[in-house]
Amino acid sequence: MSHRKIATALTPRSEMMSETNPMQADTSFELLIDGAGVAGERHFDVINPATEEVVGRAPDCTRSQLDAAVAAARKAFSDWKATPIGERQAKVAAIGDMIAAHIDDLSRLLTSEQGKPVARAVEDVGAAPYFCGLSSKLTPPVDIHEDSAERLSATYRVPIGVVCAISPWNFPIADSFWKVAPALVAGNTVLLKPSPFTPLTTLRIGALIRDILPPGVLNILSGGDDLGPWMTSHPGIDKVAFTGSTATGRRVMQSAAQTLKRLTLELGGNDAAIVLPGIDVKATAEKLFGAAFGNTGQVCFAAKRVYVHDDVYEPFANALVELGKQAKVGDGSKQGTDFGPVQNRQQFERLKGLIADSHANGHNFLLGGDTKTGNKGYFIPITILDNPPEDSRIVQEEQFGPILPLLRFDDVDVAIDKANAVEVGLGGSVWGPPEQAEAIAHRLDTGMVWVNEYGSVAPSQPFGGRKQSGFGVANGMSGLLEFTQPHTIVTSRQAAGA
């Protein structure tokens, strides 16, 4: 099984927040603190991006509630790290089983708050038991450096402490358990903060699984603009694992520096695809269409710039346009919808701004370009641009939505240079004769490159970015070790004082 990962959160918006009387709030969504559901003292609206209607109200965690969650996690840490790893693994596997048992209801709730079609929501929620299952099979190694008559020297991998996991709105559940599962197996306690745009499904999962773990081992806190900075600067938190935009990642790093917290940052990407002569145009167009527009383009490693050789540019562009014409964009809860809305108004307005900029600069649209749909909801039509200038905003900025620039090239060295000439380096792809395509893949300055496919993520396959796409990795043993620190013990085999 492979899973398509996921991610880039935007800074929460204060306009989402609204003070309410707790007695009027929907109390079915609670914080998870110290093993118990905790009502919010205040709440905020969660909006369905397809209808712009309120789908639920989430508790807005206060500073005192955060302090209580940190205290619970710190108290639970000693016993949890001392729990045999087999027991920790079994409990993480049980979390996955519980989520899998409620996947239908959770997926419908996720569609209502995130917007993606139900089938895609099932994949997102289904990633939680997948990653729980994978992590439950991993045991950190012990590295033996010397085992002689004189001494034993060994390095053990021990948990870091209290981990703050901050997940984004594009894959709320998959990305959360990409972090939570290995952190728990490694022996850490965790505070999970979902995006304020998509907190409800995560909170519901918290209610389902809270009796599986000892109190305080996993705490789930929803909140607005203040909560993230409170967490990343909190002296009681030892590590931050964050998925989000590069700009927000810089702020997380700055905040965490106050106490030298350990960090794993998976940040933005502006991933290039390079299409060579010799491809099967139809098959490649179908795969790259999914690579660019899957999850309505809201994927951290989506194909965001496609460099196409002159020899195949016209037929390839035509094939993409035909696929775009056939795609149905609409409410993810409706049968037959291929692509849902953009998740939130902030990103919706930003995408409209990029389209307006392309119109103002005379760029040619092969498809789309009209954002006046006349309906409620944050809908952007599938949009494909024809060879805009390399220095245009739509090429240089990560769009994170269903807008794709196609760019001509006739010299592959120039295409590689352009693909690398951005400040981020998350992923990329090359499409063409396998030997030639793989040689080009080695020259791309990114953490991940796919050749003649896209988005496969395997259990043993480290995932992470270069440059300003962040640092640290996820997946498999490499991802598990991100939640540990080395502990080397050198023991003399001579009697003390000998």
Shape: globular
Strand percentage lies at: 15-25%
pLDDT averaged over residues: 93
The number of E-state strands comes to 23
Output the radius of gyration.
23 Å
Number of helices: 15
Protein structure class: alpha/beta
Described by strand count, sense and barrel closure, the largest sheet is: 7 strands, mixed
Distance between the termini: 57 Å
Strand order of the biggest β-sheet = 15-16-17-14-13-19-20
| Helicity range | 25-40%
What are the low-pLDDT stretches, counting only 5+ consecutive residues below 50? 1-27
Supply the key terms.
498 residues; alpha/beta; six-stranded mixed beta sheet; 15 helices; globular
Describe this structure in words.
- With about 500 residues, the chain is an alpha/beta fold.
- The protein has helices at about 65-80, 85-100, 105-115, 120-135, 170-185, 200-210, 225-235, 245-255, 280-295, 310-325, 345-360, 395, 410-420, 435-440, 475-480; strands at about 15-20, 30-35, 35-40, 45, 55-60, 145, 150-160, 160-165, 190-195, 220, 240-245, 260-265, 270-275, 305-310, 365, 385, 405-410, 425, 430, 450, 465, 470, 485-490.
- Strands 15-16-17-14-13-19-20 form a seven-stranded mixed sheet, with helices on both faces. The chain has a six-stranded mixed sheet with strand order 10-9-8-11-12-22, sandwiched between helices.
- Helix 3 packs across helix 4.
